[in-house]
Design goal:
single chain; about 725 residues; TIM Barrel; Alpha-d-glucuronidase, C-terminal Domain; 3 domains; eight-stranded parallel barrel; five-stranded mixed beta sheet
């Protein structure tokens, strides 16, 4: 109705917008949904550093045309366009200073002519060389490898350096993986459900494969290649024989074709009873000639459709899964049958050492060692025994598994759990690199001091936390565990702090106001979870089945699947005696470790109750009684989560609003549930100790009976416990 006035308002608004320039009022970060992970490739925000990068990277020369080299070229083009603000032109020669050259000696005359022979020898088959040097009289940066995969890994490493603000002028890096096998294990079922998955449905859309290829598959491959992960196990260890049928193998082949250019080989889980279920044989006995012939034919069939198939992961005679012991045979008999079928093709068998006997043992944690060490040296060369980091089951803290170092004639690999089955699942912040670092750096003393677990293994497998959720992992901060797994699989000597620093800079910002606080939160988070869940070496105190929330009172059914079996709480004290006066599980470790764990004066107090039954009023090395020390740890866990909440709240405006709100909401849940863990656990232990809480200690919000009746979560796929937040009745 008043066009002139409206026009005047528009002019005034434009003037106000111009006045509010980025120089005077910083723009808030643009909203992000988490899909890009650590491969965000946002414009370098340091003007001086950006100018240096632009001068050093004027054009791109990639010599060679394999699918993997094309993937490297595409990633460099895409990544540098985002980081530098404009596309870097391709070229077929070194035209001026600032060339970026990538290739192998076999595909690139430029690379072959450079003095890189010693570096390439150190890099090995999969490694890379990054060098700043002169090429044909021009200043250049070179990415070289002995294979296309090496060049691809080098390309991602160069992009990582730029993302984290590293100068390139004196670039001289030789990168090589310390482990041959670096795999993600997907506990995914053929109906797209996931076992212990907290990030939506399975990535693999079997219904629409092989004809429809989800673009996420390529981005999944890119994310893995950026970390050097070179294999993926598509299916659950609780295996379904159907994946070996011809129609499913065609689907597997379609996935393999997407992953192959990124150096990611496909593996499958093999159900031991597949000859019965798929071919109608009357037995799956590994020494039966018809069974062995069936597996040879099946493996040949797999390699016809997936020529670079990696091999099988097998869970046998554990938790009801079929296996060779059903026929009176050994694990070696079963593994060797499959290994013989795979050997002509270069495939491997990863035979899991996670076993449950039919009878409840004296001590659950002794079983794998007792069952497998007598078979050392009886496995084929292409069999690897896949051993969990600890002797129980992916707990917030365990001692390292005694099998490491105990089987010198059998190749071992370590299995870690990236998905947080026992550590708060999708909502609780728990950065797991410190947990894995503890295991990898533990000294077995198998060949004297310095025989660390990392030196004892040939590969690393991680139970994936990846699903169909837009952010891949169920929460933005859970992505850090996927990242950390890949970095440690490449180089298990990296520190948790260095990995966290990289991930934060690539995922959020190089701004020190963000890096410092988020790094502090991340590195403190795992110990916080240990404190409010299982302090001082307690283990397996979670609720039954879904393992979400506290359940130290869980009893009934099979004893070694209950909490009371592991905590051994009574009026005298708490903890599982694994010394010579108890189950003697300490005998499975080499003497220096055995003596340390068996002695109350030398056992780490972080593992005290794992190895010792301790009286409630006994004094610990801190001078406090066990009761006082337990209370202190539970409270410290809650206090740390409250501090993490406050720290994150202080980042408002520095982190994009979408991710800021999601993380903030999950930290609120974590604080409520940390109090739940503390209050339920303290109430239960107090029913045995009959000791009072000290003055000022936060008393439980409800009675022990209230916590015992609480049934959470209502939806095990997305755990929450609403009764805790609305003070409702259980």
């Amino acid at each position: 109705m008043r066009p002139f006035a409206s026009g005047r308002s528009v002019v005034l608004w434009c003037v106000l917008l111009a006045a509010a320039s980025p120089r005077s009022v910083p723009r808030p970060p643009a909203a992000e949904d988490g899909y890009d992970l650590w491969l965000r490739y946002r414009l370098v925000d340091d003007a001086g550093r950006l100018a240096q990068y632009r001068a050093a990277l004027t054009h791109l020369v990639v010599e060679g045309d394999s699918p993997t080299l094309r993937a490297a070229r595409d990633e460099l083009s895409f990544g540098l366009a985002g980081l530098l603000g404009s596309a870097i032109p391709g070229a077929d020669s070194v035209r001026r200073d600032g060339a970026l050259i990538a290739g192998t000696p076999a595909t690139s005359p430029l690379v072959a002519a450079l003095p890189l022979a010693d570096d390439l020898r150190r890099a090995g088959d999969e490694g890379f060389v990054l060098r700043a040097l002169r090429v044909r009289g021009r200043q250049a940066i070179v990415i070289a490898g002995n294979s296309g995969a090496g060049v691809l890994y080098g390309a991602f490493h160069l992009l990582r350096l730029i993302q984290t603000g590293t100068p390139l002028g004196a670039l001289a890096v030789v990168g090589a993986p310390k482990l041959r096998l670096r795999l993600l294990d997907h506990w995914d079922n053929l109906d797209r459900t996931e076992e212990r998955g907290y990030a939506g449905r399975s990535l693999w859309d079997w219904t629409h494969l092989p004809d429809s290829i989800d673009p996420r598959y390529r981005d999944y491959a890119r994310a893995n290649a950026s970390l050097g992960i070179n294999g993926t196990v598509l299916t659950n260890v609780n295996a379904n024989a159907g994946v070996l049928a011809p129609d499913f193998l065609a689907k597997v082949a379609a996935l393999a074709s997407v992953l192959r250019p990124y150096g990611v080989r496909v593996y499958l889980t093999a159900r031991f009873s597949a000859p019965i279920e798929l071919a109608g044989l009357g037995t799956a006995d590994p020494l039966d000639s018809a069974v062995r012939a069936w597996w040879r034919r099946k493996v040949d069939e797999i390699y016809r459709v997936v020529p670079d198939f990696g091999g099988f992961v097998v869970k046998a005679n554990s938790e009801g899964q079929p296996g060779p012991q059903d026929y009176g045979r050994t694990h070696a008999d079963g593994a060797n049958m499959l290994a013989d079928a795979l050997a002509p093709h270069g495939g491997v068998v990863m035979w899991r050492a996670f076993v449950y006997s039919n009878d409840v043992p004296t001590d659950r944690v002794r079983q794998a060692y007792d069952e497998f060490t007598p078979q050392d040296g009886k496995f084929r060369e292409n069999v690897l025994l896949q051993v969990k980091n600890g002797p129980l089951d992916f707990q917030p803290r365990e001692p390292f598994h005694p099998l490491f170092g105990a089987m010198p004639r059998t190749p071992l690999m370590m299995e870690l759990q990236i998905t947080k089955e026992y550590l708060g699942q999708d909502t609780h912040l728990a950065f797991l690199a410190p947990l894995w670092e503890e295991a990898l750096r533990a000294d077995t003393y198998a060949r004297g001091p310095g025989s660390t677990v990392g030196h004892e293994i040939r590969g690393l497998a991680g139970v994936a936390n990846v699903g169909s959720d837009r952010d891949w992992c169920g929460s933005d901060l859970n992505q850090a565990n996927w990242y950390a797994f890949g970095r440690l699989a490449w180089d298990y000597t990296l520190s948790s702090a260095a990995i966290a620093d990289e991930w934060i800079r690539m995922t959020f910002s190089n701004d020190p106001r963000v890096v410092g606080p988020v790094k502090a939160m991340t590195l403190a988070s795992r110990e916080a979870v240990v404190n409010y869940m299982t302090p001082l070496g307690l283990a397996h105190q979670m609720a039954r089945g879904h393992h979400y929330g506290p359940g130290p009172w869980v009893a009934g059914g099979r004893a070694d699947q209950t909490s009371v079996y592991f905590n051994r709480a009574d009026t005298a004290g708490l903890g599982f005696d694994r010394t010579a006066t108890g189950s003697n599980a300490v005998r499975q470790y080499f003497p220096p470790v055995r003596r340390r764990f068996a002695d109350r004066d030398s056992v780490p107090e972080t593992l005290l109750l794992w190895f010792h039954h301790v009286g409630w009023s006994q004094r610990l090395r801190s001078g406090r009684t066990l009761w006082q020390e337990l209370l202190s740890h539970y409270q410290a866990g809650v206090d740390t989560v409250r501090w993490m909440e406050q720290t994150w709240d202080g980042l408002q405006g520095l982190v994009d609003s979408e991710r800021f709100r999601r993380v903030q909401a999950f930290l609120r849940i974590q604080e409520v549930e940390a109090r739940w863990w503390r209050d339920a656990s303290v109430s239960y232990w107090q029913s045995f100790s009959h000791l009072p809480l000290p003055p000022g200690y936060e008393a439980p919000a409800h009675s022990l009976d209230w916590y015992r009746q609480l049934r959470c979560p209502p939806d095990p796929r997305k755990p929450r416990c609403d009764a805790l937040t609305n003070n409702g009745t259980p």
